[in-house]
Amino acid sequence: MPIALQRDIGYPGRLVPFLTTLLFAFFSVVPFNLPGFAVVMPAFTLMAVFHWTVYRPDLLPLSAVFVSGLLLDLLNGTPYVGISALVFLIGRSAVMGQRKLFVNRPFAVVWLGFLALAVVVFLLLWALVSALHASFIDLRPFAFQAVLTVACYPAASYVLARAQRAFLARA
Amino acid sequence: MRISAPVKAAAQRLALPFLVLVSAVMVLFGKTDLVLYDGLRASVADRVAPVLQAVGQPVAAVTSAVQSVSNAVAINRENAQLREENARLLQWQEVARRLETENAELRALTKFEPQNTVHSLSAQVIADSGGAFARNVLINVGSQEGVARGQAALSGEGLVGRISEVGSRTARVLLLTDLNSHIPVELEDNHQHAVLDGDNSEQPRLVYLPTMVEPTVGERIVTVGAGGVFPPGLPVGVVSSVASGVIRVEPYAELSRLEVLRIVDFGLSGVLPQSAVPPPRASSRVSRSAATESLR
């Protein structure tokens, strides 16, 4: 196992990655009432999955990623329940393979990694939805959402890093 | 209980393929129109509604602050606009009053029976889909308040969509723009029937229009009674572009900033049977065939 299990933090602290990921899932379906925003709502849950997979994968295991994706699918009312769970799982294992590239690196490198993940995830989503619909659906909403998601990542990363420092500092 | 190391290692190795398989199977199940998910989604929505409202409150506070600042900037221009509009609307009011009296007289003459009474209630939007592949909103009223599948959701400007899923305290509105939304409509001027097909873009497409009909940009689109889904004449939108056979419609309702909706029960059972709960794909097939039938 490449990940050193850090057992020195208390139970509530250990739940922080999972709870923030769930909170981000709720956050991504809350109406913002800004013109055009719902169409390209940033994928907050993906940001949390990426952040914790890079920094504390031991505290956001596959099962937690699966549950978060499933919750997101049930919240946003898509007919394709499980689709976010599927792409998050694939995204997480892709990031796990490249984790060494991101740990203890400048933020720009991490951001670039997130960009790559977002491109892969949204292309995968588009391909899956197109296949399920048996036609090529419009790629633009997916592209817009990917751009906005990558653009918002620094803000989300800041919030998550603060949470990490506050609750998981003794690691 | 201690699990032996090899078993634990094997479980860890198998977790990814297992969970990927489970989610893939779930997605495929959705494709086979299982009613299972409707109930699941509705009960999850019922349970998390308080959480959504709690998370939504600070967000709403921030966006309303942003809006009030931008409103203050635009207030002078808006005032002038409103004065102009008010003058115009006063003229219309006069016309409406005259028509109302005329209508009443004609109804008395022909012993006209008014259509079944309409019940409506207002609902607050507590969540919207946010993804790139679904267009719907969750509202804070459900079967307890008498909301049922197939009822129309309207904003002040026009049709927004229809109820696709009902929990006890929440309901989901499938927006006009969703990939699975197919609504029988007509061109207001020449009464040519067509279907308004969502494709997840902001402007749905008008399909199944007879080939000889060439709609012009700016033409009004209203609902049609075919299939008994909606009462005829609800405002939907205007034709916004006609390019190489693709006709797009700009909805009157501002679908990206819905806050309060009016849910209206027109007493039409329509194409959505009360007992069976057809998922969106099945119901869309019915409304398509209903609309094509009416074209014949």
Structural overview:
- The complex is a heterodimer of chains A (171) and B (296).
- With 171 residues, chain A is mainly alpha-helical.
- Chain A has one domain: Arp2/3 complex 21 kDa subunit ARPC3.
- Helices cover 65% and strands 0% of the residues of chain A.
- Chain A is built from 7 helices and no strands.
- Chain A has helices spanning 11-14, 16-27, 44-55, 62-75, 83-97, 107-133, 140-167.
- In chain A, α2 (16-27) packs antiparallel against α3 and α4 (62-75) packs antiparallel against α5 (83-97).
- Chain B is α+β, with helices and mostly antiparallel strands and 296 residues long.
- Chain B is built from 3 helices and 12 strands; from the N terminus they run ααββββββββββββα.
- In chain B, the strands form 2 sheets. Chain B has a 6-stranded antiparallel barrel with strand order 1-2-5-4-3-12. A 6-stranded antiparallel β-barrel of chain B has the order 6-7-8-11-10-9.
- Chain B is globular and about 85 Å long.
- The relative contact order of chain B is 0.13.
- Residues 272-296 of chain B have low confidence and may be disordered.
- At the A-B interface, α2, α4, α5, α6 and α7 of A face α1, α2, β1 and β2 of B.
Features of the shown structure:
heterodimer, A: 171 residues, mainly alpha, Arp2/3 complex 21 kDa subunit ARPC3, 7 helices, globular, disordered N terminus, B: 296 residues, alpha+beta, six-stranded antiparallel β-barrel, 3 helices, 12 strands, 40% helix, disordered C terminus
What's the arrangement of secondary structure elements?
The complex is a heterodimer of chains A (171) and B (296).
Chain A: H1 11-14, H2 16-27, H3 44-55, H4 62-75, H5 83-97, H6 107-133, H7 140-167
Helix pairs in contact in A: 2-3, 2-4, 3-5, 3-7, 4-5, 5-6, 6-7
Chain B: H1 5-31, H2 36-110, E1 119-128, E2 136-139, E3 152-154, E4 159-166, E5 171-175, E6 182-187, E7 193-197, E8 205-207, E9 220-223, E10 235-243, E11 246-251, E12 260-265, H3 280-295
Antiparallel strand pairs in B: 1-2, 1-12, 2-5, 3-4, 3-12, 4-5, 6-7, 6-9, 7-8, 8-11, 9-10, 10-11
